[in-house]
Amino acid sequence: MFYKKWFFIDKPIWNNEFSFEKRTNKRLYVPEIIDLDINDLDQIRLQDDKEKIAFEDFWFDDKLSTNYGLKNFYRIKFNWKEIVLFDNHNHAFYFWYEARNRWIIGDNNTLIHIDEHADTRDNNKIILKPDSFDLEKIFTFTNEVLNVGDYIIPAQKEGLIWDIIQIRNTINLEDYVERYYWNSKTLYKNWVILNLDLDFFQKELDFIDYDLKKKVVLDAFEKADFITVCTSPFFIEQDLAIKVFKDLFWVFGKK
Description:
27% helix
């Protein structure tokens, strides 16, 4: 398994490709992953080293946004469920394939994607089925080819993802409740992955009812075989992201 040691990306690849030539800082940081019990979510820490930037790019007004993410990635297990918490969303790609290699999920999964963004840009890069079982190749593809907006389509083309349920607004939330809330996961073809971006809870989206968001997230969690959650440093304040994460999932441990 990878992500056992932190590293920097210092080439114009991955998320570091964004505005690479314009930025003074030329590298982004990726933390190592550690295990965490569901009862110990208060031990989640944000990055406090100013040299370890998680994401950096310019907004439309040409203002540079420098963002720090998590001090560590976290693998959180309880009962038979597992959540992997990380900062930039393209890391989900690696952890999905790692979960498949561990027989947590298989191919043709239903992806419940709860996010401010669709993350379905097509970069026309693919990974072949034989290579998809090689986690070193998956790790390289995740950290050298993909970025936060284009990691889903390669997984769909390869066959890991069969169907995508996009939840990005109130209409999507209400539609999910009507179609799936009272139904069991047997409605899905095979396995279910919940892929949550905490930027769906950023302040600018407060017009979407928080309780409705939480209701859908927790229902999707119950249906999911595997859960990936990202804190999206560029799109939501990280203190708020962790506060929401704890509110959503600490219900399964102690408060």
